[in-house]
Design a protein that fits this description.
145 residues
Length: 145
């Protein structure tokens, strides 16, 4: 479209014509917030508590919705209304399953952490190049310390 077409539209709709020159103004970039360093164990615990609270909240809201839908289904006696209630109940059961999965995942994470701690203390396949006399000498020195 040409400028003439826009002038016709401006006249038709009774608006002020826009200036042709548009000045581009540069703004200063936003400063990024520093990410605070935190303890991964604390973050894991906070995330768990948050996820758990959200799942509980969802279950409670779904229960209220199911109760309301059940009232509608009971009053209307319509098969589709009952179908909606059953689908809502299934969805609520799925959220409860997710809550159980969350518990299992937290237990698995804690077991993995325990295994890491235990594996750090285990020493396997230690090799010594020397005679038995050298070994006995090293053991006596360790005992004396």
């Amino acid at each position: 479209m040409t400028k003439e077409h826009f002038d016709e539209l401006d006249n038709k709709f009774d608006v002020e014509p826009q200036p042709e020159d548009v000045e581009i103004v540069e703004t200063t970039p936003r400063k990024m917030k520093k990410v605070q360093e935190s303890n991964p164990k604390e973050d894991q615990q906070k995330d768990y508590q948050y996820a758990r609270a959200q799942l509980y909240d969802i279950v409670e809201k779904m229960q209220e919705s199911i109760n309301d839908a059940m009232d509608v289904a009971h009053d209307s006696q319509h098969p589709r209304a009952y179908e909606v209630v059953f689908q809502g109940a299934k969805a609520a059961a799925d959220v409860v399953d997710k809550l159980a999965d969350l518990q299992k995942k937290m237990k698995d994470l804690s077991k993995e952490e325990e295994q890491v701690v235990q594996s750090n203390n285990t020493q396997n396949n230690i090799y010594m190049s020397g005679s038995t006399a050298d070994l006995i000498k090293m053991l006596k020195e360790t005992k004396d310390k």
